[in-house]
Amino acid sequence: MWSDKESSVDFLNFNETAESIKDLITERELMPISVGVFGNWGAGKSTILELTKKSLDEEGDYIQIRFDAWTFEGFDDAKAALLETIASELLKEAEGDKGLVEKAKEFSKRVDAIRLLSLMAESGAALSGIPLFGLGQKLVSYFDDEPDNELEEGEAESDFELGDVAEVADKVQKAAAKGKGIIKPKKKLSPPTEIRKFRSAYAKLLEGFDKPLVVYVDNLDRCSPINAISTLEAIRLFLFLPNTAFVIAADEDMIRLAVQHFHKGASIRHQKDYLDKLIQIPVHVPKPGVEEVRAYLMMLIASDKKVDVEEFNKIRNKLEESLRLSWQQDPITIDDLIADCNIDNVEEIRAEFKVAEQLAPILASSSHINGNPRIVKRLLNQIRMRLKTAKRRGMQLDEKTITKLVIFERCMGTQATNKLYELIDKEKGKPEIIAEMESSDTDFKVEKLPDEWKEDLEFLEQWAELQPPFAEQDLTAAAYLSRQSIPMGAINAVMSGAATKLLDGLSKQKNRISEANSKLLDATPQEEYLSVMDALVEQFKLIEDWKKLPLGIYGARLLSLKDDKCKNVFLTYINTIPSQRWMVPIVNELKGGK
Prior knowledge:
5 strands, 24 helices, Rossmann fold
């Protein structure tokens, strides 16, 4: 089995991208800098961050902090979580140097002040009208303080003992409920002043360290729009401060949707401008091609087979070199790849590498996989789980047979898979249509295919060529295992956060037109559409009364207009339910646009 976590070992030649980011960071004259690592769910953004961090570790003396935004989703204010993570890590870094410790404590104090401003904005909005960070929020702030020589004319210092910030905010909240203040303030806590002092304390601390700080922000696109934007607002506090780099991994489209959600009425231009101002240099995760997927599969196999570290690195280095030179020469052959490797089970690995070589084109080109590393890894885990189940039950099934069926399920969807299993049951494990598809001697006629299979003929042609051939094989046990291992409604359950949000939006759509769902569609990778439609159909199967147009039908219509395969799945299902008057215009529209 393979872990779904980011890797510090490069399986997809992402080192080139990581090295490019490292080169930007190590150019001191470019500091401060913010780099955006953009890509779809599962594309490898987290791995690129990890590889960049590893490369900088080898390069020189840097303070590196990793912040997983999703970890704090629902537990804390995202802005406070990022600021406090940075403050606590810098305090640890300062240990042993009294002067730096004092500066780190001063910076931590400024972080507390910024957090208090945010908490009081939420808790005591009724008490004052001072805007916070341009977000239109209200806050009240007050505490005894002493003047600060560094303040500009007319500003007041707010050097207070915070203690428990949450407790202070709670008092403000209770006071707000009563309509009166806690104490009479002598001086107000000014957001511009506190932000200026925060930045000043940070700059002095970094000057004391005399080495750059690099902060890696990951999983931002998994967060709610409020937390995603809150984290970006925290990053904005550090912009243009010396010796600082932020490397932010995110799905660009999801962040723009978050901007639109958070700042109501923001135009497309404003959404783009917001991100462009925060991200100075965008870096897009390269989409894996056939050779990259081939190398990725081989590295996963070598890892799973527990190949010795030294021999594993030989294989990895050869594959990396082959990918770097792919523009001018053919990929390295399997025999050359393992030629001088001292591997005990070399013949077994060679056989699995051959399977990987055969699978790579279909995994790279299928519109429902697109070489996405996370999807590829999860498919392999599904295959491995089914294989273990088969062995426990005494089923004589090999990994290749299971693999071929799992790929069909993922790429063709629930309705097409249902039809496949129906044919297997009906024809005693040996569907004639599959034998005809696999035969090179037969002039195959497309019209013989079930309607559920006709939307992706290119995939079917590639799939029929996969080993092993099913023509003479009894697939009864394999089909039974598939249905037992993964319920039909969960065949395509490998969904990203974007697809999950789309499913939720479409299933609740009440009207023919939904601007919000149209934006969610645009933010979801196309390879996820079929998974969403299958999930919608499974929800429709729970409906008993079809006289009234059910919730979600317009959502399914919207998705059908976007993708022909989804349209076919939806129309096929609609034909199975009692005919209703409300169906006619929807069905006519979809058939007319087919």
